[in-house]
Design brief:
This protein is mostly helical. The chain has two domains: about 230 residues, HUPs (Rossmann fold), CATH 3.40.50.620; about 90 residues, Tyrosyl-Transfer RNA Synthetase. It has 13 helices and six strands. The strands form two sheets. The protein has a three-stranded mixed sheet. A three-stranded parallel sheet has the order 2-3-4. Helix 4 packs parallel to helix 13 and helix 10 runs antiparallel to helix 12. The N and C termini lie far apart (about 45 Å). It binds tryptophanyl-5'AMP. Tryptophanyl-5'AMP binds next to strand 2, helix 1 and helix 8.
């Protein structure tokens, strides 16, 4: 297996059962919200693996990537802006290298089976589990939203996204681990309750970068919704914007360039970014001997150059694609059609298991 992704847990016992003895065909599913330009955290934390898995996959593996509009509306969105963000998210995924002839690329909100399966899984989801979701608590604590049912059940909808395609692997950032645990538990609860082998228990695939932090506050993850745009590097930022944001990135009073995420989180975050942008992201981030005689200013310019060389081709491809409305539309339509044909089969199977098939 290529070094870019690491499995977060050992092979579960269900995969060793007789039906999985031969090479298991992988079904890879992941999603991104259309809530602003995807940033370096999205890219290094998850999207690089989407592209990598596409390259490393076997011909019979299936790759399904989705722009998850129904998740976006769990927080207030302006309709005109959301429309634009949906297209921009699709253009970004194409720009980073998702090939719509190899992977199914679609808008989740255009495949209504997601909402229907979410309802069914919601009927199995214990409230206590949802109450403990750290992502929910973090969003509520910002004070930007009231406690709403949609936001509360966000992880159930995510589980539906994944299980609808009977996914085996889900490339995501580290912040999504708890959602994947819930997904496995809901899959298992369904299988047990209805004495079925309907769902696989999907595994998360996390990049070595795991989590990229805000450039303004290294106790927070880099986020699309943070108020200060200097806290994140967008995949469409210009070279000047990138250089400025990294120059202004908050570090600390020490000028030594060392890897110490606990006591030197700002510098360590920049090292993570540098290593992920320059080389194989699996390389050891702590190898900082080369910076022993480097000033913080020079180090930051090295980081900025590395980020720019990674972002520049994405940025220009994004601008080319985002203005080609016809192409984006045809990719979206074709993707939704292919997704629907899988989703409707699973939903039919699920409904017949629970006694809700059409009569
Ligand atoms: P979203 O749009 O918030 O994030 C998309 C992906 O980017 C990762 N990510 C990060 N990784 C590292 N460092 C960061 N600072 C950072 N910020 C974001 C996220 O972990 C995610 O992988 N809930 C999902 C969307 C979703 C989904 C799904 C994912 C809905 N249904 C089904 C997988 C499977 C999310 O966080 O989107």
């Amino acid at each position: 297996m290529h070094r870019v992704f690491s499995r977060s847990r050992p092979t579960p016992s269900y995969r060793r059962s007789s039906s999985f003895r031969s090479r298991q065909r992988k079904v890879i599913f992941s999603g991104i919200q259309p809530t602003g330009v995807p940033h370096l955290g999205n890219y290094l934390g998850a999207l690089v693996n989407w592209v990598h898995l596409q390259k490393a996959s076997q011909p019979d593996d299936q790759l399904i990537y989705s722009v998850v509009g129904l998740h976006a509306i769990t927080l207030p969105q302006d309709p005109a802006q959301l429309r634009q963000e949906k297209r921009a998210a699709m253009a970004t995924l194409l720009a980073i290298g998702i090939d719509p002839t190899r992977s199914i690329l679609f808008h989740q909100d255009e495949v209504s089976e997601h909402a229907e399966l979410a309802w069914i899984l919601g009927c199995l989801a214990p409230l206590g589990r949802l109450n403990r979701m750290t992502t929910y608590k973090a969003k509520i604590s910002t004070g930007k939203t009231d406690e709403r049912l949609g936001l509360f059940s966000y992880p159930v909808l995510q589980a539906a996204d994944i299980l609808l395609y009977k996914a085996t692997h889900v490339p995501v950032g580290e912040d999504q681990r708890q959602h994947l645990e819930l997904t496995r538990d809901l899959a298992q609860a369904f299988n047990q309750q209805f004495r079925a082998e309907t769902f696989h228990l999907p595994q998360d695939i996390i990049t070595p970068s795991k989590r990229i932090f805000s450039l303004r506050d290294s106790s927070q993850k880099m986020s699309k919704s943070a108020a200060d745009p200097k806290s994140r590097i967008g995949l469409t930022d210009t070279a000047d914007e990138i250089a400025l944001k990294i120059r202004k990135a908050i570090t600390d009073s020490s000028h030594e360039i060392v890897w110490d995420p606990k006591d030197r989180p700002g510098v360590s975050n920049l090292l993570t970014i540098l290593h992920a942008c320059t080389t194989d992201p699996a390389l050891d981030t702590s190898a900082t001997a080369e910076f022993r005689n480097t000033s913080l200013v020079d180090f930051k310019s090295r980081v900025a150059e590395a980020v720019e060389s990674r972002v520049a081709p994405i940025r220009s491809e994004f601008h080319r694609l985002n203005s080609d409305e016809g192409y984006i539309q045809s990719v979206s339509r074709n993707g939704a059609e292919r997704a629907r044909s899988i989703a409707s089969r699973t939903l039919q199977e699920v409904k017949s298991r629970i006694g809700l098939e059409a009569i």
